[in-house]
Every structure is written in C-alpha cells, then in structure tokens.
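Methods — Computational structure assignment.
A single polypeptide chain was analysed. Its primary sequence is given first, followed by the predicted tertiary structure written as structure tokens.
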Amino acid sequence: MNELRYYDLGYSEVFIFENYLINQIKEGEIVTVDHAQVLKAMIDKHFSNRKMIYIGNRVNSYSVNPLVYLKVAEIDNLLGIGIVVNSDIKENTANYEKQFSAKPFEIFEKMNDAILWATEQISLQA
C-alpha cells in the first residue's frame, strides 16, 4: 500500500500513508471518545497487522477531551503520537495532553520532523 488515502470526516481531514496517518482537525471542534473510535476503525482498516504512527497537524484551534487518550491506548499497533504545532499556545496544550497518553508522544514545530520521527519509530520496530 503505497498510495495516499484521503478522508474528509466533516470534523477532520485524514491523510493515510504507508506507515503513518496525518489527522487535521477542523477549527473549533471538540475531539471526543467517539472520534477516537472512528480513528481506531480507520487504523484497523488501513494498518491491520502493521505498526503505525499518528500525526496530528494542529493548524486549527480545537479541544481534545483527555479521555480520548484512554481509548487511543487500546490501539495495539499504534507506536506513538506526533503533534505538529504552530504556536506556543498549541504547544502548551499538547504538553498538557501528553500527560494523559500511554503511548510515546512527541511535539514538533515542522511536519517534516514529525514524519522523520514516525519513519524512525517504524524502522526501530522492523
């Protein structure tokens, strides 16, 4: 599977690559456990029996219910979470959320750095 897949879920846009996905939540949304369940189903469909990385591209302002990270912890093939931020406020928010994550959780200022990290995490599992 080397082709890009794209989904517009209404509240977010998801770009699926071979070893990672990029999720771009839309402005003003509140991410809930229901959203995490949709994400888990998407991961099961596209990454069954393969390790993968979640990258959140925080170009918009939105809220995340910290309970989401309990649901995310149940995704066995998820190796880690990378969050790309473009402001100090978003970085502070991501650092707060990091406390709730049972998975490795890294924060980046550039998408390219997040993708390099994701690729490195996958290769360490090979």
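Note: Residues 111-125 form the longest helix (15 residues).
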